[in-house]
Specification:
single chain, 204 residues, mainly alpha, 8 helices
Length: 204
């Protein structure tokens, strides 16, 4: 029995001794080798690093532009003045004719449209008062203007007066003689003829 107790104490002592020992890990030596290798690599990288120091950028000023703005040399053209139309004064012939005509245009218009028993028709039967085209006789639009140039030396009034009282004295080209009655000097009084001429001067 005592032997068993002693054997147990011996085993217990051995176990306690074994528990107090700190085992040194095997990988500690490998870790040290790794540290040495890393240090060597760092030294190698430092040795092969580029030693050239980059030059600082030089601030070279750009040349100032030398081009000079050329001022325009073209002289502005002044606006062209629009010529104003100068009214053409009436000719002496027209003024003389206007002064000579003393008839009443309203009465003359009534006579122009009135059927006359002496000739069996009115002036308007043969003449357009609002156009120059021929009806039977010539149209009478602007007749005062045309009358100024029909016969040299005659005013518009003189020509129209003669055409009423003596239509055969001057026959317009393209119209046969004898279309106009030759009796108006007896049919109309001088006052009525002037009224007719005054009306003809208004046909413009």
């Amino acid at each position: 029995m005592k032997m068993l107790i002693r054997l147990g104490l011996a085993i217990t002592g051995l176990m306690l001794a074994a528990c107090g020992t700190v085992a040194t890990p095997v990988w500690s030596e490998q870790a040290q080798e790794t540290q040495v290798a890393l240090a060597a690599t760092s030294e190698q990288l430092t040795a092969i690093a580029p030693t050239v120091t980059p030059a600082p950028p030089t601030n070279t000023p750009l040349p100032e532009p030398t081009a000079t703005t050329v001022p325009p040399t073209a002289t502005p053209v002044p606006p062209t003045e629009v010529p104003t139309e100068t009214p053409i004064p009436p000719t002496a012939t027209t003024e003389a004719a206007a002064q000579t005509v003393s008839g009443d245009a309203a009465k003359g218009e009534a006579l122009f449209n009135e059927m006359r028993a002496e000739v069996n028709f009115a002036c308007v039967t043969c003449h357009y008062p609002n156009q120059e085209a021929q009806l039977i006789g010539p149209g009478l639009l602007n007749i005062a203007t045309r009358a100024e140039t029909r016969v040299a030396g005659e005013t518009a009034y003189e020509y129209l007066h003669q055409s009423i009282v003596d239509p055969g004295a001057y026959v317009v080209e393209g119209f046969p003689d004898g279309l106009m009655p030759r009796t108006y000097a007896e049919v109309f009084s001088e006052e009525q003829i002037n009224d007719l001429i005054a009306y003809l001067f208004t046909l413009k």
